């Protein structure tokens, strides 16, 4: 069973209503929703940035391998012959 049951949640809701008042609850819920939306957008942007960085790092070792191969063979990496 979870840490909180229905009686616990009702008590928490009653305390929130007593602290903030019933008139302020819609504004509180709206600001909470906006904050969650901004947080979700920032997390998505960070994941996209990490994916772009990771793909750039994956491409970089391939060029390093070509440079190592050219050093071992004695030919420049840009040579087409």
TrEMBL record:
Keywords from the UniProt entry: Cell membrane, Membrane, Protein transport, Translocation, Transmembrane, Transmembrane helix, Transport
Organism domain of life: Bacteria
Topology with respect to the bilayer: Single-pass membrane protein
InterPro entries hit by this protein: TatA/B/E, TatA/E
UniProt main location, coarse: membrane
Localisation: Cell membrane
Family: Belongs to the TatA/E family.
Function recorded in the entry: Part of the twin-arginine translocation (Tat) system that transports large folded proteins containing a characteristic twin-arginine motif in their signal peptide across membranes. TatA could form the protein-conducting channel of the Tat system.
Protein's name in the database: Sec-independent protein translocase protein TatA
Organism from which the protein derives: Microbacterium rhizosphaerae
């Amino acid at each position: 069973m979870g840490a909180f049951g229905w009686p616990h949640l009702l008590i928490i809701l009653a305390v929130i209503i007593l602290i903030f008042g019933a008139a302020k609850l819609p504004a509180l819920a709206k600001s909470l929703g906006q904050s969650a939306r901004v947080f979700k957008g920032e997390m998505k942007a960070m994941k996209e940035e990490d994916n772009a960085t990771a793909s750039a790092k994956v491409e970089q070792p391939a060029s390093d391998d070509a440079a190592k191969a050219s050093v071992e063979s004695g030919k420049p990496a840009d040579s087409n012959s």
